[in-house]
Amino acid sequence: MSIVILISGRGSNMQAILDAGLPVSAVISNKRGAAGLAIASGRGIPTAVVQGNDYGTREGFDAALAAEVARHSPAAVALAGFMRILTQRFVTRYADRLLNIHPSLLPSFTGLNTHERALAAGVKVHGCTVHFVTAELDHGPIVAQAAVPVLQGDTADELAARVLRQEHRIYPQALRWLLEGKLSVVDGLVQVKEPDAQQTLFSEQP
Ligand code: GAR
Asked: What pTM does this model have?
């Protein structure tokens, strides 16, 4: 019953998952220089790199990634700042075990630069979402969300930092539910088999 975490960079969500005491069997990056790799190694977690441009095609990359993931027979695969779109084949293989964290309140602001776009749109509430991964980018059944206020004069960095603190709260929680077998998807909607499960968090004072 362990998690394989896929990263591309800093790895702060990965760290939050480790700090929560969840069982992590490996951290895999698609970038050799990802800072999170050193953090994982320092904590005794096996790491691997499946570098995007070492493979000719997206299918080739995904097959190599799937083989690396499969070595650990994970109960859950967590995308934690993993900045690559996975193929339908990969997504199907891990369908009910594959979660992602996205820095917006989906379905608003899919894709990149979510904080800049939230500021430009003038929204007053922003946040983050944990969702099951489907082949469509940043779609898929929503497991948990956290909301933060957008404050007057916020920069994108300030807003990102406020959201990130909430990412670090909800992602470990969602993964724990998954490992405990508490998540099910009914008609595209996630149910948590826990009577008082709170799937929406609101930040404390910013
Ligand atoms: C996080 O904010 C995560 O939500 C985002 O990348 C950052 C990675 O930070 N993911 C995406 O934008 C995926 N679409 P981290 O490496 O410190 O966890």
From this structure: 0.97
